[in-house]
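Hey, quick one: can you model this chain's 3D structure?
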Amino acid sequence: MLDRELTTERKKLTFGIKSLITIIAIIVVIFGMLFVLRIVGKAKLGGVVAGTDAVSIGERIGDEDENRILYKGQEYQLNEDIITVLLMGIDSETVDNVGGQSWSADSDSAYSGGQADTLFLAIINPHTEEVSFLTINRNTMATVDVWDENGDYIGTQIQQIALQHGYGIGDEESCEHQVKAVSRLLFDIPINSYAAISMDGIPKLNDAVGGVEVTVLDDIVYPEYSMNLHQGDVVTLKGEKAYWYVRLRDERVFNSNETRLNRQKQYLKAFVAKAKSEAKADIRVATKLYNAVSEYMVTDVDLSTFTYMATEYLDYDFNLDNIYSLDGETMMGNKYEEFYMDEEAAEGLIVDLFYEPINQVSP
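Sure thing. Here's the predicted structure for all 363 residues.
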């Protein structure tokens, strides 16, 4: 009897040790995979999709490889460690339209790739351990590369920058055109990566973090979309409501895009805060987010790079003060609203975000 009890206890102990070893092995494998993904991801962040270190602001000084400028009597050094990612919300109701369609003579529109209704440049600064966002008004008048319906390059025209994404013969190419246009607008600042997300992918992205709470900024009453939100309401956006909150605008009201842009900035802040909180509790949330939106997204940021970014930058500071907008003026064009950027103000902002002062130059 005693022998049987001892045997049973040994079996329990053996089972417990095996279970513990198995659990430890699983943990080691998971963290090992995360480590490998981080290393691979870090290596892939060094490339540049568009732009150059020779930013067209101020006066170049010193050796060319030093990336120094003289701007308003102050010497600045380009922060070469900054990582930039252009985030695009594409006005497209179907997954197939996210990144553009092949050109043909039968194309219904020169903008069949979908317009970039939302443009945010994420700026990750390891020196200050901050993540900033620069919002770009979709109506900003900018130099845009133009192709005709037959795929022949026409040249450049001044158009709303949101239209640039529509030109292209493929998913990645449409995104690269948009990145180039944004970089050119911002004085050729280098942009490392991009992610274009179809707007109808927002519900899955939103619900992957359990919904996002906001205080409604303006009345959003559209019975046809089951939207009945009023200014001051505190709501947790779920599913389609998140989509319509960042998408709807009253086109009968002048400069309605600015009102929508404020909502998008507010939502971005709330979403990032919620995603960070969820990821700190469970790092697998980062992979969950990536997988949730992957079918709606065209990006050059693969899972390994995303995993690296999520783990490396999780504790970086991000708040409303880190969301910047380009100053300028909205006016009515022949048919649509047009936003004209204040170039002098934009130069100052780019210097503040991407450069570091070296030493005060005597006047």
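One thing worth noting: The domain at 78-360 is CATH 3.40.630.190 (Aminopeptidase).
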